[in-house]
Design a protein that fits this description.
Length: 236
């Protein structure tokens, strides 16, 4: 009899969990190896402020789970609170889309060793970041060259350094433009346009805007890009 009651209770719990999951369209499951004491937060940008939408207290278990509803794909962030331990490696961006996304990482290299599956937009985001970070690093190095030329009074070098910077920036923009156009069927396209091409020539933004698929145009970032391009046209 006791065994029957236990089995029945377990079945009810499983049904309850299934019903809970059925009420939501997005699920993030994960494991942060070595993180058994602290809190992991799921956050997203509201205007320019990171806002927590859920959190999980880690207590002798490194696994976590978030279930929620998502209208359209959106960049979110997993943030770990390590307590008294100080680290700059506490934030992991994830391009979340409806469905099930799995995060497998470790506390020591939270961002660097993260493996994220289940989101095509995030897969594309990682491809974009791999190249874009190289451009950002190269631009930073050229900026250091300019600073040194000014610091050590070498004005004759400034024009060539400035020209090198502009050429590198142009290549970075062209890469972002081509990436957005080649991935117009995904929400990553307007996201890249908004975050990387905000000060680019309006004709490029307009081209990306006009090539978005209806689904992408109706997404959060698609609507934001439409609004941004509309405002730019009013100003020009």
């Amino acid at each position: 009899m006791k065994q029957f009651i236990l089995s029945l209770t377990t079945a009810i719990l499983l049904v309850s969990c299934s019903e809970k999951n059925a009420d939501t369209n997005t699920h993030i499951t994960g494991n942060i190896k070595g993180f058994t004491a602290g809190t992991v937060y799921l956050q997203k940008m509201n205007d320019t402020v990171l806002t927590s939408i859920d959190s999980v207290k880690m207590d002798r278990d490194s696994k976590f789970n978030f279930d929620f509803n998502l209208d359209s794909p959106e960049m979110m962030y997993l943030v770990v609170d390590r307590g008294v331990t100080k680290s700059t490696d506490n934030v992991l961006p994830i391009f979340v889309q409806p469905g099930t996304i799995n995060v497998d990482t470790e506390l020591k290299y939270f961002y660097a060793n993260a493996k994220i599956t289940g989101s095509e937009n995030h897969k594309l985001f990682e491809q974009f970041q791999k190249v874009n970070k190289k451009y950002n690093y190269e631009l930073l190095e050229i900026s250091k060259e300019k600073f040194d030329a000014q610091r050590f009074n070498r004005p004759q070098d400034l024009d060539s350094i400035e020209n090198k910077f502009n050429q590198k920036l142009k290549r970075k923009y062209l890469f972002a433009i081509n990436f957005a156009l080649n991935n117009k069927e995904h929400e990553i396209a307007p996201y890249v346009a908004l975050t990387e091409l905000g000060d680019a020539n309006i004709k490029f933004l307009d081209t990306i805007h006009n090539t978005m698929s209806p689904k992408v145009a109706d997404s959060k970032y698609g609507k934001l890009l439409t609004s941004y391009v509309t405002e730019l046209k009013k100003e020009n």
